[in-house]
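Narrative progress, year one. The postdoctoral researcher (J.K.) led the effort to move from monomer predictions toward full complexes, under supervision of the PI. The following entry was the first complex the group processed end to end, covering 570 residues in total.
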Amino acid sequence: MLRELLSPKRESSRGALDGERPANFNILVGKLSEVLVKAIDKPLGYAINWGRLWSLWPVHLETACCSLEFGAASGPRYDVERFGIIEAFGSLRQCDLMVIQGTVTRKMAPRVRMIYDQMPEPKYVIAMGACAITGGLYFDSYNVLPGIDGVIPVDVYVPGCPPRPETLIQGCILLQEKIKRTRFR
Amino acid sequence: MGLEIDRERIPGFDVEGKDADGMDKGILTLSVGPQHPGSGHFRLIVKVDGDIIVEALPDPGYVHRGEEKMCEYRNYIQNIPHLERPMIADSCGILYPYVLAVEEICNIPVPERAKYIRVIMAELNRCIFELYWLGIYGIFLGHSTMFMWPMADRELLIDLAEMASGARVTHAYFVPGGVRNDVPDAFPEKAKRHLLYFRNRLKEYKDIFYDNPLFQARTVGVGILRREDAINLGATGPVLRASGVEHDIRKVEPYDVYDELDFKVITMNEGDSFARAYVPWLEMYESVEIALQALERMPSGPVRTKLGPNPKGAVGEVFKRVEAARGELAYYLVSDGNPKPYRVKLSVPSFREIPVMAHLLKGAKLADMPSIYWSMNYWPVEADR
């Protein structure tokens, strides 16, 4: 179809470039882009998702005590780096994953949102620990938010208080599954 | 609970004031944190003149969860899990004085075997904390190997603690009247094996970390805390002992069975960041010694005094302190005769290091800030409570 549209023997379509028959020209461009998207979408989307999948870089933001198990997860025994996740990355401009490590207090919540807004798209959020999901042990404390999902959108919830490193790794794998199935934008 | 996200402007990079000639003084205000390349949810507002810090204003409170208020509407047993959350790297250390205080105010006897098990667990937790701290200190100063090694050795000790209590870091193992359950039969043998391996392993840390010229260049002579300043500012724990003050609650005010065990208090006279990193390393040897001695002397018998469902405290107040991994940790507990405490006050070592940190940062180079900050044994979750 593409060859047909672009072949020189279709003289009439050349006139479209001079503005004689704009309707036809629009159809040409529309069909062309359709063909291109159909041809490129699947392999390109797969490649982009594959790249995102294996290089999830978490921003180095700790909100409470779950950071300890996050640190242990990147230690030699659990070694979350096999899944392409580097711990303790300083610059948030190069990050695409945010792991909310535990309790978010009223003082911390605006900062969490600010850091989330500064991260470039695409970005994913893992809520780690009972406190980040519902407030956990501190459900009746005066300074603790009942879960982080009122402040930023969450992709994966990892329960536990604190979650074991295996649980965190399972959460990361779930996030990778999610990215794999997402149509890239 | 509705939350208004208020997009307040956090002061960033402001040039401050002008001098008499209308020229900029050149004092910059920098905001470091709460998201920063180092570690911890803690913000420092530093004013710098060129490379020299003129003033450092700590801004804690990002993890303030109201532990003390929560204690007032839970009973003595229900308070155990949330009281260890401020410091889950050393969860036995932070629970120890609370348990001692409740035992005193509710008049609960403790079996002899439980005292030994508590000492073993407290020392294991001290090592677990120091190793984590050392690992982060390593990566703070760009030494990735020193992150990996302590993290790997820490897992062995966590295995022991998990074997005894069933949880990796949040053990909730100490309860008023002893410990929650007895250790498994295989525990003493496995503990000895792991501790002896760990003691051999500690020697290698000196070769790769403490003798490393890069580490020494960044820490020797940096942030010197003099002996009298350390006492006046109220420093505790390894920070105090690195400045030459021989003060350890385990010796000054022995609790449980520490007076029967043989160990020495480590001090150094330099008071710089290197000494503050070196003292915990030497203390880990002592911790291993204490744990091995306690394993030898541990008698058999019950480990927990049976309690009623809701133990009531006598009317009165009690103050108990222990030597946690970061220093002196104290609980002040007031009871009005109800099953719930009237007031619980935590005095945590991390909070006491904040004035010391502000004092040391004044006049230091901006590049020395990480090495001073982390050598303070400062743990933001614990300091904010």
